[in-house]
Amino acid sequence: MKKRINIDISEQLWRRVGIRAAELGIAKRDLVEEALENYLGGNEVKNETYYLVQMAKGTDNGYDETSQPRTLLKTTDKKAALDFYETLPEWVALEEPETDLEGREKYESPVVVEVSSDTRTMIRG
Q1: Is 0.70 surpassed by the pTM of this model?
Q2: Rounded to 5 degrees, what are φ and ψ at 117?
């Protein structure tokens, strides 16, 4: 059961929470809950490595670091993540076409990201 709370927090810290949550592909509230669990020492399971299968926006020249990827799967099973990744198309056109500053069309492509308590590494994509 969840308890809704209201807190005052510095704008700079909340911005950092938003950036980190976007990097991990999770909601800010989930990041805050996980951080509190880790800080209070009641969450040994959350420190293990997990894998995100995400659709990342980009062009042929690279990924768009300003957009948040869509998370399709979060699992602690690396093989399950890689197997799911293999079922996805190489790229998908955006519903609403976008281009980068040089006019190249953007699309989404799948990536697998390995996340641990201190690192985040793309292992497929």
Answers
A1: no
A2: -60, -25
